[in-house]
Amino acid sequence: MKIIKNLTAIVLCIATLSLFFARVYADGIITPETEATALDISNEHKKSGLSVTAEKAVLYEATTNTIIFNKNANEKAPISHLTKLMTILLTAEKLKTDKDFTLNRKLITSSEANSKQGSQIWLDVGEKISVKELLKSVTIGNANDACFVLAEGISGNEKTFVKAMNERAKSLGMKNTTFVDCTGISESNISTAKDIAILSAELLKHNNLKGFFTTWMDSVRGGKAELVNLNTLVRKYKGISGLKACASDKSGNCIAASASRNNLNLIAVALKTKDSDSREADARAMLDFGFEGYDMYAPEIPKDATEPINVIHGFELKTDTYVDGTAKLVVKRGTTGDISITYDRVSKLEAPVKKNTKIGELVFKMGSKELLKRNIYTKTDVKRIDLVGAFGKLLLSLLKN
Predict the structure, then answer these.
(1) Residue 133 Cα to chain centre, angstroms
(2) How far apart are CA 153 and CA 109, in angstroms?
């Protein structure tokens, strides 16, 4: 009986393989693509019910990269000491990636750093000062000499550091930004409200910076230099998390302010306000507008959208799938019931299948307006099965039964 059973298994195995290797192709496979960086749900500022005095402004939700309010947000403008936000980001990234570059590491003040005018902590030539105190001086006090010491400590000289600043800006999608120094002293440092919001969102990923950004007053150099934060919202706005305020003759008063409430991480950027009071008022008005009128919505993804997909000629018959990125939306309060979710995906794949192969799309709409699109990908690699492997796998399965 055992011999008969084995012969039967072999016959069935050969018959199945003849069908298995029939030429079958998957339909409409889409190759992976780069996701769009930001979703703009803003209306013209005159129609939104929100008014700001700044010439250029944006309200940006950092988790979903959503623009809620937009007033000339893509127009270029001088940004003064907001330039330092990129210096702070490169410092934070250096701290994360270089084990020898720590908050306690001492950097030496060069004669060029000592010569910086404007806001400073009066560093002496040759003076050693920790990265922690330098970060304090830049985030709280806008100190130009401290900023220059950081740039030299990271890249050796300002020219190389500025090159890194521009490269990082490009990698973040800051398409309208050009840095010419590390401090913001030059009025030729140019950006947009939207680009500053993108930069700010990246900075907020570094939780170790929050303590610096939200400090109202401090001192460094053993109390020799007092620091006062120009971002006055740090001492009086609920949920504040940073970032920086500044002013110059050409840029006017500028601010990038961030706050978190009710799962929203908002960033308000105002460029060229007329004075410091207007600067604070504009940032506060935008943040209030976002928190009072918008919600974070995390819709339930249809189970069928991420069910395993069949694989023809694969060593495994199926592979799991997933939706990329965060399936969250910033929506006007009270409108979540108007959102619909649809998806479209191919029915099968042919091996070999690579991990992260795009097989479809998930689309979120409000009425006819598309709000968000997410891709559906395969979770694992699936090798193409050869004749020997298929024969052995099927025979073993039959014998076990």
Answers:
(1) 27
(2) 9
Segment 338-349, tens digit of pLDDT = 889 999 999 999
Give the C-alpha separation, 361 to 324, whole Å: 10
Q: Quick one: pLDDT band at residue 48, thresholds 50, 70, 90?
A: confident
Any residues with CB less than 8 A from the CB of 64 and at least 6 apart, and which?
Answer: 39, 296, 326, 328, 329, 330
Q: Which domains does the chain have, with CATH numbers?
A: 2-30+299-400 (2.60.410.10), 40-294 (3.40.710.10)
Q: What is the DSSP string of 239-288?
A: TEEEEEEEEETTTEEEEEEEEEETTEEEEEEEEEESSHHHHHHHHHHHHH
Strand partners, 360: 345, 376
User: CA gyration radius for the chain?
Assistant: 28
- According to DSSP, the residues that pair with 349 across neighbouring strands are 311
Q: What is the pLDDT of residues 220-236, one digit of tens each?
A: 999 999 999 999 999 99
Three-class DSSP category at 238: coil
Q: How far apart are CA 256 and CA 73, in angstroms?
A: 13
Residues in the chain: 401
Could you give the CA distance from residue 90 to residue 153 in angstroms, rounded to a whole number?
11
pTM of the model: 0.81
